[in-house]
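User: Quick sanity check before I run a bigger batch. Here is a single chain. Can you write out its predicted 3D structure?
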Amino acid sequence: MDPDCLFCKIAAKKIPAKILHEDADVFAFADINPQAPTHILLCPQKHFASLNEASPEDQALLGKLQLVAADLARKHNLLPGYRTVINSGAGAGQTVFHLHVHLLGGREFAWPPG
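Assistant: Done. Predicted structure follows.
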């Protein structure tokens, strides 16, 4: 954990959040600035800033993030369509430097996204 990281503070319960999933590897919570009717952030318990810091040892964890996202999509009735997004770096729009997956749903999405 990084003591200065916003998402690490949420994981440690130092900052309140609407937690929607939590296990030894992953926690998920409702985004406070939603960009869709359903906007959930999924984070590894392990702190790393972005995909750039992920290593081969993180392969299972990265896969688990997507599987938890799919499970949350089912639980939140997003099966007509949803999007998962990982922004890596400020140039891609990442503002909190703890790897996280955005799960967005509840509306139609356009392509290309950016």
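The mean pLDDT is 96.

User: Great, the batch can go ahead then.
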